[in-house]
Write a structure and sequence with these properties.
Blueprint (H helix, E strand, L loop, with lengths): L2 H14 L4 E2 L2 E5 L3 E9 L10 E20 L3 E5 L2 E4 L2 E22 L2 E20 L8 E19 L4 E12 L2 E15 L2 E14 L9 E15 L1
Parallel strand pairs: 1-5, 2-13, 3-13
Antiparallel strand pairs: 3-4, 4-7, 5-6, 7-8, 8-9, 9-10, 10-11, 11-12, 12-13
Length: about 230
């Protein structure tokens, strides 16, 4: 795009906002929740050594959170072409659903295990913003879908065959999007192929909006986490 064309377009986008500053939509919740389920299959023929073996991991995660956001005078938030202008207080809610498929490689050092993984994540983010000071205003909402390059690592210490503790870390990257997730979990293995996990998670996520027409989404969630994992 030439400079002669870019300048008028930028001016038009700025004028369309009514000269108000476009503000991010923030969802910060320290009492959010996460649930995950995963299946890990390590068939014959995958890379393997005496201490390690590769496999395929399929997973689904769901996050829920909410929080209040102040929109100051002269600012506005815009989602999918709809706008709320400050001064106002918004009640924001988010639901994140994510599925992933990854190559997972288990490395065993006795009681200590390491599980690096890399693959793709498919994500849907639903955000709703409701005016707390003017209920007559229509709520703002958006649904963002995207595919991420994802990767992560899980260090784990096994107390015995039934109990362990692990820290699971994950990153997701795409154009205009990024996410980071970490959790500390207590692991209980009631059966050889079944693991139950409970603990605490923290997630940060950024989704860039279109210039002048869509607010960025800034999400920070933390709270209790639970997971069910099947290993074959």
């Amino acid at each position: 795009m030439t400079l002669r064309l870019a300048l008028p377009l930028a001016f038009f986008a700025f004028a369309a906002t009514g000269c108000n500053s476009l503000q991010h939509v923030n969802v910060h919740d320290k009492s959010a929740s996460k649930f995950a389920t995963r299946v890990v299959v390590r068939p014959d023929g995958f890379p393997a050594t005496k201490r390690s073996k590769g496999g395929i991991e399929l997973g689904y995660e769901q996050y829920r959170g909410n929080g209040n956001q102040r929109v100051e005078s002269g600012n506005q938030v815009t989602l999918d072409g709809n706008t709320i202008t400050g001064p106002d207080t918004l009640r924001n809610e988010v639901k994140i659903q994510q599925g992933h498929v990854s190559y997972n490689h288990l490395i065993n050092f006795g009681r200590f295990e390491l599980e690096p993984r890399v693959g793709l994540a498919f994500q849907q983010v639903d955000v709703t913003a409701v005016s707390a000071t003017n209920p007559a205003l229509a709520p703002l909402s958006t649904r963002e879908r995207g595919t991420y390059l994802s990767g992560g690592i899980t260090p784990r210490f096994k107390f015995n065959d039934m109990m362990a503790i692990e820290a699971r870390f994950a990153l997701g990257l795409a154009s205009g999007r990024r996410s980071a997730d970490g959790e500390l979990m207590l692991v209980f293995n009631p059966a050889p192929a079944l693991s139950l996990r409970a603990g605490y998670f923290k997630r940060e996520q950024h989704l860039s909006g279109d210039f002048g027409t869509h607010s960025n989404l800034e999400i920070e969630l933390s709270g209790p986490s639970a997971a069910l994992v099947l290993n074959f």
